[in-house]
Amino acid sequence: MGRRGKIHYFGRAANPPPSRCRIPHVTQDRRDPAPPRPATAAVLAALSGLLAGCAALAAAELAAGWLRPKAGPVVAVGGAVIDRTPAAVKDWAVRRFGTDDKLVLQLGILAVLALAAVLLGLLALRYRRTGSAGVLVFGAVGALAAMSRPDASGPLDALPSLAGAVAGALLLYTLTGRLRPAVAPADHCDDTGGTPGWDRRGFVLTAAAAATASAAAGVLGRRLSALHGRDAAASRAAVRLPAPASPAPPVPRAAAPRVPGLSPFLTPNADFYRVDTALVVPRIDASAWRLRVHGKGVARPRTLTFADLLDRPLVERDITLTCVSNEVGGPYAGNARWTGVRLADLLAECGVRPPSRGGPADQLVARSVDGMTLGTPVEDVMDGRDALLAVGMNGEPLPFDHGFPVRMVVPGLYGYVSACKWVAEIELTTFDAYDAYWVRRGWARRAPVKTQSRIDTPRPFARPSAGMVMVAGVAWAQHRGIDKVEVRVDDGPWRPARLAAEDSRDTWRQWSFPWKAEPGTHTLTVRATDRTGRVQTARRTRTVPDGASGRHSVVVTVE
Ligand SMILES: Nc1nc2c(c(=O)[nH]1)N[C@H]1C(S)=C(S)[C@@H](COP(=O)(O)O)O[C@H]1N2
Ligand SMILES: [Mo]
Fold this sequence. Notes:
Layout: H1 3-9, H2 38-67, H3 73-84, H4 87-97, H5 101-126, H6 128-148, H7 159-179, H8 200-228, H9 230-238, E1 290-295, E2 302-305, H10 306-311, E3 315-322, E4 333-342, H11 343-349, E5 363-368, E6 373-377, H12 378-381, E7 388-393, E8 396-397, E9 407-409, E10 423-429, E11 452-457, E12 467-476, E13 482-489, E14 495-496, E15 498-499, E16 509-517, E17 520-530, E18 553-558
Parallel strand pairs: 1-10
Antiparallel strand pairs: 1-2, 3-4, 4-7, 5-6, 5-10, 7-8, 7-9, 11-12, 12-16, 13-14, 13-17, 15-16, 17-18
Helix pairs in contact: 2-5, 2-7, 2-8, 3-5, 3-6, 5-6, 6-7, 7-8
The structure holds the ligand Nc1nc2c(c(=O)[nH]1)N[C@H]1C(S)=C(S)[C@@H](COP(=O)(O)O)O[C@H]1N2 and molybdenum atom (MO).
Molybdenum atom (MO) binds near residues 275, 323, 324 and 415.
């Protein structure tokens, strides 16, 4: 679009007289008499860059909202960054930011983009084409990231980033054009009456229009994105879980003593920790969901629907899930009542035999709809424990965050080697032949849960009054069971805590310890002993590669 068109667009002036000059005609009156001072020009150029960046993101958001929310540039680049993050950095991010790590990542990407936008704006002030073309480079990066996601749906995924980049580049080109002298001295053309001034009014109007349009596009894009999950939400609302053929007995009252500050025995879904790489939580329509079971030694491969699963006898089990990224004393442990299908039965029907009975596959690789892969020992899944394809969590269909419609849960193994959410495929293979997602990033191939215990109350640096203080917490060694918990005050002797009743050996066990607290600063330390007789080690290790070890301590000051 030439400058003439724009003049018309803003209703400024009648068509100027035709000019034989290449350079678009600009009438004297709509130009500021003087060019902006260099500092002002730089600020306006930086602003142009930022506006172009916003326009690019908004246009991309709009296109993504319409086509595919996950193909948006920030989500795509974020996903690519997550996949390329080494274990140590991921570990640091989880430690530093907890489950806000995804938010921090996206804010980081936006900060980098904002900086780049400012620089491109400044570049475009001098080199208008080059600066504007720079926006296209960022679009290309977004497009490549979107297309290279494991769950990319095809070349269409590049569209949001490309559309955004074109919008941003055009806007930057236009805005910086308004900042320049009407006629550059070198190609001065006599009959245009060109001046060295700048188009202040045009700049302001264009900038305001662009900002408004960007905001509108951004909001509309978000709205459209939300619509994509509608079918999934409806399908989840329609799920009626059949009564389990093998219900879990009620949690024994004595398994859940009432101690203020102690974690509830069953973790409510809303409070259950969430750890995954999904920047956009997959929302799957259960009626469209399929699970494919195939691979090495699968004599009868099968594809199951959600209805097929619900037709099978369901079992209900209490199982504590823990994350390998959990620091000693950390929050990434939760206990839920899961409903599901026994995975071992299904595998047996497909003709799978565990290695101990001559089966050729020792690794079960579960693949999720978003391309995550988790590798589980076939032996563990088929050794009689309640390894589940879970469809229910605490009496309701799985929440989207926790894997709707179907996820795996295997007692005794960390989540990253067992608990695939949004599972779509189960492939039997060997550990020699295939490394799953986290293994490729430095985590161990096999990762049974380490025996651990945690003090929930008192909180670190609490200031209880002298006298009776109830110390309490949880201890876990899923599938082995907890036999003893002991507490030590400062360097005193280990003294046994009161163990609450055991629900099942696949769940954590609560404990409490009435402490006659004396004034001063004290360190409380806890250790558990599992049913194999192993005492929780004092040796501190990091979470990488197979889970943190060491003992949890809390320092309190008794007043
Ligand atoms: N698809 C998918 N499944 C996944 C993950 C993931 O990133 N993607 N993370 C795993 C990890 S590391 C853990 S600890 C558990 C956490 O399950 P939750 O979020 O329901 O607590 O899910 C596992 N399943
Ligand atoms: Mo995890």
